[in-house]
Structure formats: C-alpha cells, structure tokens
C-alpha cells in the first residue's frame, strides 16, 4: 500500500499496518509518542489539552531520537513516497515533448501546449531539453493566438540556451507576434488596463455591516443579521489564509478513457489557481507550476522553499497534512510564538477575572463574551482560534495526526529548514536555501524547542482542518471544442482554510449560497510593467487570486443567524443520514429547522429524500396510479380497485436497467455520437413512462440527456420540451430555490435563445 497516513480526500483516513513493517515503524512511533508527551507537557496552553499527572515524563530531544533510527527505518520511509517522485527527469521531458509534437502535427494545439508544459516541468534547469520545450510551446501558443505568452516563451527558450543554428525560427516567430500585437494595441490596451484595475480594487474582503459576530457557549462564534438582508445581498467575501491544490486522481483518466486528459494540477497555477496553458515550473521539482514568474517567486518565498524537497512525502501524506504544514510555514515561528503567548496571557487574564475556570478550553468560556473576539481582523489569529475539537476526536485519529506532525517536523529538521528568524511580513530569509535557525554551536536544546513549536503548530492545524477545511469548487467544461453543447460539472480543485467563512454555522436548509472565483492568467498575476498591482498596498495586492463570496439565498430577518451548509442538505439526503454524517465529521447533533421539523421545512415534498430514490413517485404498471411500499417490502397499487403488486427486486432491476441505458447514452454523447445516444434514449422512454412519474429523479435525468442529444445535433426546438420536463423533476427533487433548478432554467433560456 503506497498511501502514508492520509488519503487525498479530507474525509478519509487510511492507516498502513503490516506485521513485517512493525519493527521499521518502531522508532517513528516512539518519536510520535514522545511528541505527544512533550506537547501535553510544555504546550498545553498552545494546544488546549488538559495536563494529567501521567503525562510528565522524561523527554528525549527529538534530534537525538531521530539519530537512533536505523537505516532500515529511513529506507522504509523513503519507499512509501517512491510512487510520488517529483524529481526533474530529462527522459520524461523528451517523452512529453514528442507526444506534444504528435498533437501539434494534428493541429491539436491546446493539447500540444499542455504536453510541452509537462516537458518544461520535467526538464532540468538550464538544459537544452528545457529550451526546446519552451520553443515548441511558443509555436503552439502562436497558433492559439496567445501572442504575449508566445513572446514570453521565446525569451525563456533563448535564456535556457536554445541551439543557435535554430534561433532564426524563434526570431521569425517573435516578429510575427509583434505584428499581431501591434494591430490590436490601440483598441485593447485601455480596456485591459481598466479590467485589471477593476479586478484589483472591486473586491471588498470581510463581513458586511448588516451582520455581526456573536458568541455563546452553544453556538460558539457565529454571524447574526443586525438588519434585514435581501436575497442576493453579499454577506461576506473571504480569501483563504492558505490552500493546497487537489491532484486529480488517475481514476478520472480511466473513467473517460483519455490518456491525454489533464488533471487540475496541470491546468492551474499552484499559487493562485488561475488556469494557464503555459505554466512556469519550479526550478527544483517537476510538480509545482505557476501562471507567472511572479507567482513562482511568491510561492517560493512563502512556503515552497521548504516544501520543494518534501514534495513526494507531502503527496503521499495527502492534502490535509500538506495544508497544515503550509499554514504553519506561512505564519512562521515568530508569529506562532506570538499567538501562543497571547493565548497564555489572555487566559491568565480571564482566569484572574473569574471568567473561566480552566485554562485554554474555549468550551468553558463565560457567556459574557469571546476572549479572542478582538483578533478577527488578524488573518492568522483568526485561523489560530478556530476550534480543533481535540476531546471529541478518537484516540486513533489523534495519534495518527501526531505521527504525521512528528514526521513532518523531523523531515523539516533533516532539511535544516527552521523558521526562527522568519517574520510573516519579511521573507528575505526564505530566499536562501541555508538554515535560518540557530547555529549548531548554540546547542540542541534551542533547536529542539523550535522543532516542538513547529510540530505542535502542525498538529493543531491538522486537528482544526478535520472540521474547518473548505473545498474550493468550480464548474469545469468538458474538453469538447467542436461540440454545440458543452458538458459542465462541479469539481473540487483545492482544499483551503477560510478565516471568516469558518465563522458560519451549519444548517441542512441554509439561507446562503457561496461562489468561488479565481483569476485568469491575465487578470492580475502577469509579469512586467503591465501588472499594476505591484504598485498597490499589500492588502489590495492580496485580493487577487481565489476568493469566496457568500450571498443571501432568501430573506434573512433581523436577529436571524446566517447559516451555511457543510455538505448534508435537506433536499439531497434524509435527516437520519445527515445527522449521522455531521456527528461523525463535525461532532455535533444537528438541530436545524430541517432536522427538527422535516415537514415544515418542505423535506417531505422532495421525493428524492424520502429514502431511496427508487421508492419515489413510482407508477403502477397497469393503471399508472402511485405505487406504495407495504410492511412486507412489496409495492402495491394505491387504487384498491386495481390491486396490482410487485416485488422490490423487480422494481430495482427495471430501474437499474434504465440507469445502465442512460449511462451508455451519456457516454456516447461524450464521444460525440449524439444520434446513437438518442436512439437508446427513445427506446427506454416508453419503459420509463410506464413506471416513473414525471417528478421522479431518473425521469428528469433521462429528459435532460434527451435534450442534450437534440441540442448537440442543433435541433434546439426539439430539445426544449425535454428540458422543461427535466426542470419539473428537478424542482420536485431539490426545491424551487435550489441551485440545481437554476442551472436547468439557465440551460432552457440558452435553448430558447439559440432556437
């Protein structure tokens, strides 16, 4: 098993435990145990874990413990991450360049550019392979009419040592690009400047004046409306303190059977999440890539100078462990020390005033107020004071996280990347690969204390992320450039920690919606004098990149809490299942209106959540009356005069047969064969009308697929009635104010416009 500690998903945790590996793990496990002991002993205020008498034991410095690890332990740790190599590889660069050449000859310039980008990332720095990959990519970009990007790649190719006997090709291409740009300069430059200025200054991060932060024992920190909020009003706009891009799994390639399908990690900047065809690589590894040299530089100064050598280990550990480390690196030891000291001072003051009875436990804070309310404006302090629910998490999970934190701390120690002299606003020390911590002659004691502080911060954020991590989602178009219809799906591209968004409590029937936005490669991250954001104050420059906007989905009255859905929604899941998932993931029993009174909330009117969708709106085969399930598990006609009965097995079999046909039809449309897909859908239509009501979810999916087939063939008027039927089923399943219905209505508008 090649997965260490965590799977990539934030919800799944995997543990490797093989008998023949137990000895090799011993040193690491002993280290993590000592790590737990020391943190409980010396950092109880920092982690908010009560101290017990059994926790006070003799502590061996971690560097000394690491020295006792055998070579077998080291070899085993290396073997775990072997499948995630991120080293530069000239041979791999050649393979990607040759594949790019094949697509270039077939005039598939977009795929060619992406394959050349892969070659650029694998090619060793200042090598001939690097220069040739840049040159070839410039040719693809020219055909895609990305003239400025083409010029940039020409410069990079020449700087990387492009062969002199071929340089005339680049000079000719440069001349053609300049000619094309000069034709458009007079009409494009003013609008480009205006657009960049608007994007940079329009975003107002923070919470709107119509809501206020309140605190009590039951709900913790939460947002409450101080005046009426109308639907569509912006409640807050937030920027992540830190995020980590989610690598797309190989299973996606297998699902779509496309070897040249590119995952998120190849299409987006790892610093700002902007989509880009011409990524700028990290000079030290083959994985990290950016939309510009500026993003590359900022990532290096903020975190990547420490992460670069740990790339394979971080990919093996998973996104959550990676994000916990990145939050810690961005803050730096100085900021972490200040946060820890402030916790101690605040609790000592509160304790002396009689506001709390035990140290460092926000669950025991007085109802008179939140002791850390004054730090909401400070980005890291807002993250630092998020609850970690240590007491609710199982011993196995806490130990697993401690092992991970200990391992990361040890890896950083071995690389000598200490952050002692680093300040969050001064990254000069990050420009050097040299250790920035205390010198060796200063002794192991100081280095060990810094290591504990670094590791305890990683552990704290690991515990917080289990309950506070937020997936960044976007709508992605399928790569079908010549099709009349573009298939879109929502995908997760990153996992983030949002300071303000984390203040929102959960409801299974929320009164808000949220939308994530990311810049494009030319909207604020470009290099050169055209980038106006370099002259702006720091707080305005940081508004570029990814952000989230929370809007009211319905009227929010004075005094009403602002609520967000953590995942389980009343229109998609039964109450019992929602409460189980929320209890397992977030450690609370949901008592929102939807869970307390499902009928009042309208859950009973949504057939998709009464149980299995196969039991929703089924019709009698003989008289088309509604079927009802009796106590014996059989489906009986609701009309006593009919009396028809059928078994659950037969119903499930017929539904499964229709589902299989639907999946085949969708697959045919993905392969640009809509006529064949339509034939399948017409065959199954007669069967579906015999047993499914118009409001059944599967009926809606079949109608939507039929509409898509007609639209792909350009028969807009034939597509519209089927999409209207799909909208009826969608409304019945998800509700009148659902985003799902909004998407169907938007498609219907497009159909009528095209028709």
Automatic annotation (TrEMBL):
It catalyses: L-lysyl-[protein] + S-adenosyl-L-methionine = N(6)-methyl-L-lysyl-[protein] + S-adenosyl-L-homocysteine + H(+). One of its GO terms (biological process) is heart looping. Keywords: Cytoplasm, Metal-binding, Methyltransferase, Nucleus, S-adenosyl-L-methionine, Transferase, Zinc, Zinc-finger. Residues 269-308 form the MYND-type domain. The keyword Chloroplast does not apply. GO terms for cellular component: cytoplasm; nucleus. GO terms for molecular function: histone deacetylase activity; histone deacetylase binding; histone H3K4 methyltransferase activity; zinc ion binding. The keyword Endoplasmic reticulum does not apply. InterPro entries: SET-MYND_domain_protein, SET_dom, SET_dom_sf, SMYD4_SET, TPR-like_helical_dom_sf, Znf_MYND. It is found in: Cytoplasm; Nucleus. SUPFAM superfamilies: HIT/MYND zinc finger-like, SET domain, TPR-like. Residues 209-567 form the SET domain. PANTHER family: SET AND MYND DOMAIN-CONTAINING PROTEIN 4 (PTHR46165:SF2). Protein-lysine N-methyltransferase. Monomethylates PRMT5, modulating its transcriptional activity. May also act as a histone methyltransferase. Plays a critical role in cardiac development. Acts as a key epigenetic regulator of gene expression during cardiac development via its dual activities as a methyltransferase and negative regulator of HDAC1. This is Protein-lysine N-methyltransferase SMYD4. It comes from Oryzias sinensis (Chinese medaka).
